[in-house]
Design a protein that fits this description.
The protein is mainly alpha-helical. It is built from nine helices and no strands. Helix content is 79%, strand content 0%.
Length: 197
């Protein structure tokens, strides 16, 4: 790999790291590209060379967030032994996230609140939402729920509510409460499966 290619990759990584920090803290539209390039320590031309536009930088920022979220969730759910524990473990992983210093809520929800319909943000956020619903549905099905899609819909609502309460109310117990309700819903869904109702 040439030095020039390595420098470009390094600049791209610095730009993404700066975007991740600034966009998450202050918003994708509130933060101008000048702040991003200053934080990354690169020239404006480097940003356009690496990403082409601010919209593409935003897409890459959110895509990287989703990839990290997915990898982290997969890795952390592996510590649970049963399908039911993994299903509820999603809330345990969320509890760890909301307790982190600098937690500012869901990056996708925050970016969506600032963006217009049909934007890059909406597209990437929709993919993230679909992944979360799919995760809950797959875990519910593995646990034995007859209607795993319905259970997933219920659990996504709980998850969303816990994220918003943790962010807006600074209530770190919201995730614990949501997990308790999720356990009731999961157990009811699994009982229905056991009785065939």
């Amino acid at each position: 790999m040439s030095t020039k290619t390595m420098d470009r990759r390094s600049a791209r990584e610095r730009l993404l790291a700066a975007a991740d920090e600034l966009f998450y803290a202050d918003g994708v539209h509130s933060v101008g590209i000048d702040r991003v390039i200053e934080r990354a320590g690169v020239a404006k031309a480097t940003l356009y060379s690496a990403f082409g536009s601010k919209d593409e930088l935003i897409r890459c920022y959110l895509t990287a967030r989703q990839a990290a979220r997915r990898e982290g969730m997969t890795r952390k759910l592996a510590r649970y032994d049963t399908p039911r524990e993994r299903l509820l473990g999603v809330f345990d992983v969320l509890a760890e996230q909301v307790a982190e210093p600098g937690f500012r809520g869901c990056a996708f929800l925050n970016a969506s609140a600032e963006s217009r319909p049909g934007s890059t943000v909406e597209e990437v956020s929709s993919e993230s939402r679909a992944w979360l619903r799919s995760l809950f549905a797959e875990l519910g099905q593995a646990a034995g729920a007859l209607d795993a899609e319905r259970l997933a819909q219920q659990l996504v609502l709980l998850y969303d509510g816990a994220v918003v309460a943790a962010q807006m109310d600074r209530d770190l117990t919201a995730v614990t409460v949501a997990r308790g309700v999720a356990a009731v819903l999961a157990d009811a869904a699994l009982a229905d499966a056991a009785t065939g109702s």
